[in-house]
Design brief:
Blueprint: E1 3-7, E2 10-13, E3 24-29, E4 32-37, E5 42-47, H1 51-63, H2 65-76
Antiparallel strand pairs: 1-2, 2-3, 3-4, 4-5
Length: about 80
């Protein structure tokens, strides 16, 4: 479960057994959990986060998409 980014209270990470799914990232903090598709920064799942957290998380994914996609491809060995 490699952590690929930490910003503010959020930890962005991958589950190593999910390489067959489209590129996505999991996010957690003491306030909740979320999963987002990387190509469109679309929320797939959310638990415990309010609208302001979701907005911040989506903006972070958009801002760091190139890094996150690069890490995804490095970790899962796809291009």
């Amino acid at each position: 479960m490699p952590t690929v980014l930490r910003t503010g209270p959020y930890r962005f990470f991958f589950f190593s057994n999910e390489g067959t799914e489209p590129p996505h990232v999991h996010v957690e903090s003491s306030g909740g959990y979320a999963k987002l598709w990387l190509d469109v920064a679309e929320l797939v799942e959310v638990i415990g986060y309010g609208a302001s957290d979701i907005r911040r998380i989506r903006l972070t994914v958009i801002e760091h998409r190139r890094l996150l996609m690069g890490r995804w491809h490095e970790h899962f060995g796809s291009s």
